[in-house]
Write a structure and sequence with these properties.
Helices cover 78% and strands 2% of the residues. The protein is mainly α.
């Protein structure tokens, strides 16, 4: 009986857990509540993915109101795949966050921190699982409101400015999305995504439909932090607490990509989006420019968290480039990199969080001598770094390999060369950290520094090991990405 209600439990459990953190404020109870809710959501997402693979699309009617009249939670291979990514990395990060958060945030308002975390987590899951366009907007706002609080909780005063910048740009993105949804509703009289798909595609290139499409693509691109709409991201990742940086880098932009893919492929359809409106070319141009520009900017950063933030914008470019190809191989490559990048950035930001825990800074100078003083932390950082570069036997290689194959298959071999060249830029900025950590002596004022505690190292290494595991055993990330691509493309572009 419970199995029938897994879709609603996926969202309701973290939503209920959020106020429980306020009610039960005793030492470590808020963290324990958040951990149980997150790991339960991870287990549910695994069960939902298994159900989708065995029985096909799952439709859950809220309040027994049949769609399109009622709100429907609809799980196919695409959002089941993304749910697993979001909940899986969040489960590792919440374990990392207990001691890391206490060191950077303190215990006095711990319950408020985990309340905001659970609301953000609930919003991200809701965006991914809902089959209603307006409900997607509502969950997007829930996750955004929680995110603003999480970013502002950083102990650097600039965290407030970073949160405010994200609030402004995030509100603009959300406004674009709700305007686009409003235009669609005005034309079709429905908000159910499956129902919208049938009605929207029947109108063709109607002016109102084209305007709605434009608003939705721009709004989703802002939430996704696609270059040049990424201005909120570097400061947000830099000044937020380390746990929050890892959480957002691994989940928020991935859900943003999901929103873009869901609107473009499910509601408007690949024929309308990529043939009638030729969306592929502008997406490919923005992705390529972003890959090179933000990777180059990352090279010159003296704060490792800020370096990784600009790197995230570049990696988003790889995902969007795969989507822009709009073939089965290309879309699968983009979704594959979504999965793999969550593991990379989760491991890298957690490793940086270990350094911050012991040294109190994420500046590059603080890493001096860390290779000798914190060998396990730096080994995890290097593992995430080689996956980010895309060396063989890592998860990062798998996504980039399929992306290169997709570009060559499409006849865009010069772009395949550019993908390889842009990966070389990652070698430079990752090497800067490695060089300082292993070949420079610690600063005189640094004093003795010990390895990070096991409570931080274990989840960090779980994510680092996953980068190796999914580079060798690729059945989940590769097969999952292809199943997701097939669910939204059908026979188009195969």
């Amino acid at each position: 009986m419970i199995a029938v209600h897994l879709p609603i439990l996926q969202v309701v459990l973290p939503l209920i857990a959020a106020p429980l953190c306020v009610l039960f404020r005793a030492r470590d109870l808020p963290w324990a509540i958040a951990a149980v809710a997150t790991w339960t959501a991870f287990a549910i997402s695994g069960l939902l993915l298994a159900q989708v693979y065995s029985v096909g699309v799952i439709s859950y009617e809220i309040g027994d109101w049949a769609p399109p009249w009622g709100i429907e939670y609809r799980i196919d291979a695409l959002n089941a795949f993304v749910l697993l990514v979001v909940s899986g990395v969040s489960a590792a990060v919440i374990l990392f966050g207990r001691d890391s958060m206490l060191a950077e945030f303190g215990r006095s308002r711990e319950y408020l921190f985990y309340t905001a975390y659970l609301l953000t987590f609930c919003g991200l899951l809701g965006v991914t699982i809902t089959g209603d366009a307006f409900n997607l907007f509502v969950f997007l706002e829930i996750s955004s409101l929680g995110t603003y609080v999480l970013i502002a909780s950083g102990n650097n005063r600039r965290a407030l400015l970073a949160s405010y910048q994200y609030l402004i740009l995030g509100t603009i993105g959300a406004t674009f999305i709700v305007i686009g949804v409003g235009f669609l509703y005005a034309m079709t009289g429905t908000l159910n995504m499956v129902d919208l798909a049938g009605r929207v595609q029947a109108y063709g290139a109607n002016t109102t439909i084209v305007v709605a499409f434009t608003f939705l693509v721009v709004g989703a691109s802002l939430k996704l932090a696609l270059f040049p709409l990424h201005l909120w991201l570097p400061a947000a990742y830099t000044y937020a607490p380390s746990m929050v940086s890892a959480f957002l880098a691994a989940t928020a932009t991935k859900v943003g990509l999901y929103v873009l893919v869901r609107f473009v492929f499910t509601i408007f359809g690949p024929e309308f989006s990529f043939v009638t409106l030729s969306l592929g070319l502008p997406l490919a141009i923005l992705a390529l420019v972003g890959m090179f520009v933000t990777s180059t900017v990352a090279i010159f950063q003296n704060d490792v968290k800020r370096m990784l933030a600009f790197s995230s914008v570049a990696q988003i470019g790889y995902m969007v480039l795969g989507i822009s190809i709009h073939t089965m191989l290309g879309v699968a490559a983009g979704l594959m990199h979504l999965f793999n990048h969550a593991l990379m950035k989760g491991a890298l930001f957690c490793a940086v969080g270990c350094i911050v825990y012991r040294v109190g800074s994420s500046r590059l100078d603080a890493f001096a001598g860390a290779g000798r003083r914190m060998p396990w932390t730096m080994a995890a950082f290097c593992t995430g770094g080689i996956s980010l570069i895309g060396l063989p036997l890592t998860a990062g290689f798998v996504g980039k390999w399929y992306l290169v194959l997709a570009l060559i298959d499409r006849g865009w071999w010069p772009l395949a060369v550019l993908v390889v060249l842009s990966s070389m830029l990652a070698v430079i900025y990752i090497w800067r950290v490695v060089e300082v950590a292993y070949f420079r002596d610690p600063l005189p004022e640094a004093g003795p520094v010990e390895e990070a505690p096991l409570s931080l190292l274990l989840p960090t290494w779980a994510l680092a090991f996953a980068n190796i595991w999914f580079g060798i055993e690729t059945s989940l990330n590769v097969n999952g990405a292809f199943a997701a691509a097939e669910s939204i493309l059908g026979g188009f572009g195969s």
